[in-house]
């Protein structure tokens, strides 16, 4: 609604008076304090200013010109600053850290580690809180809004036994399997990936390369990973003894040659008399 203060969001409010400790803004029903440390260098009475509204440590509604890393109804990858008997506090860019109750944690959260959370306004307390149980805040869809091969935005946020769990387009959970990841991914930063499969439960299998490329089987992926780990060169080739290949990869020479062929067709490697190298 217009002319209604929105906690946890940016508001465009009018400056109504100046006091020694800051400015008071028109909060429609109440006056809202903008503390002195957040007052801009130049301003005028009756001027409008964009501020973020939240509750301070004494539970008072207050304004700030600082910008949090996310607002309510958004996801964010944040670091834990403190653990208390009631929950954890995460750094999100404001003087007051963001609270995650123990009931909203799916695992024990530790100081110094970062987690993906969903920020929301608690209906009972009217306070801004966050939840690490992010999947319950995603829309319930069967994944039909996606098509295999689609290029999407993904935020990597958690290692699992299978690979790296990602938030896709802020609406779905996807998985980059271990044998699909050949580069360092920065958790919390958006990256482009491709939809490789849509599961019956609506979750997504992801790939870092376009699905339209020549399919590379698991043998080829292992070979490619080994080349990258060895500074771009592998001292094996299609004439190498089968025992040397098996010792390094635990695969037959036939499977090795099949994998090398797939990589060559995908224009990922160059073949030499005594080695294989990255293009």
TrEMBL record:
<dbReference type="InterPro" id="IPR014464">
    <property type="entry name" value="CvfB_fam"/>
</dbReference>
<feature type="domain" description="Conserved virulence factor B-like winged helix">
    <location>
        <begin position="221"/>
        <end position="278"/>
    </location>
</feature>
<protein>
    <submittedName>
        <fullName>S1-like domain-containing RNA-binding protein</fullName>
    </submittedName>
</protein>
<dbReference type="Pfam" id="PF13509">
    <property type="entry name" value="S1_2"/>
</dbReference>
<dbReference type="InterPro" id="IPR040764">
    <property type="entry name" value="CvfB_WH"/>
</dbReference>
<comment type="similarity">
    <text>Belongs to the CvfB family.</text>
</comment>
<dbReference type="InterPro" id="IPR036388">
    <property type="entry name" value="WH-like_DNA-bd_sf"/>
</dbReference>
<dbReference type="InterPro" id="IPR012340">
    <property type="entry name" value="NA-bd_OB-fold"/>
</dbReference>
<dbReference type="Pfam" id="PF17783">
    <property type="entry name" value="WHD_CvfB"/>
</dbReference>
<feature type="domain" description="Conserved virulence factor B first S1">
    <location>
        <begin position="7"/>
        <end position="65"/>
    </location>
</feature>
<dbReference type="InterPro" id="IPR039566">
    <property type="entry name" value="CvfB_S1_st"/>
</dbReference>
């Amino acid at each position: 609604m217009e002319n209604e203060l929105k906690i946890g969001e940016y508001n465009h409010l009018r400056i109504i008076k100046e006091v020694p400790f800051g400015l008071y803004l028109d909060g429609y029903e109440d006056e809202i304090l903008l503390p002195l440390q957040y007052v801009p260098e130049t301003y005028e009475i009756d001027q409008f200013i964009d501020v973020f509204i939240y509750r301070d440590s004494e539970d008072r509604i207050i304004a700030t010109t600082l910008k949090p890393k996310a607002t309510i109804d958004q996801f964010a990858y944040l670091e834990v600053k403190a653990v208390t008997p009631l929950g954890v506090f995460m750094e999100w860019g404001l003087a007051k850290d963001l609270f995650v109750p123990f009931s909203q944690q799916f695992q024990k959260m530790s100081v110094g580690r970062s987690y993906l959370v969903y920020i929301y306004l608690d209906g009972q307390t009217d306070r801004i809180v966050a939840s690490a149980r992010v999947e319950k805040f995603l829309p319930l869809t069967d994944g039909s809004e996606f098509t295999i091969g689609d290029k999407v935005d993904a935020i990597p946020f958690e290692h699992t036994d299978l690979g790296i769990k990602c938030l896709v387009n802020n609406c779905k959970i996807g998985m980059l399997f271990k044998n699909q990841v050949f580069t360092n991914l920065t958790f919390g930063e958006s990256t482009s990936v491709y939809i490789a499969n849509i599961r019956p439960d609506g979750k997504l299998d992801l790939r870092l390369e376009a699905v339209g490329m020549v399919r590379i089987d698991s043998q080829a992926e292992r070979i490619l990973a080994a080349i990258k780990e060895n500074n771009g060169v592998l001292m094996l080739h299609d004439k190498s003894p089968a025992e040397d290949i098996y010792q390094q990869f635990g695969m037959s020479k036939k499977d090795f040659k099949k994998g090398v062929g797939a990589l060559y067709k995908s224009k990922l490697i160059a073949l030499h008399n005594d080695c294989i190298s990255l293009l």
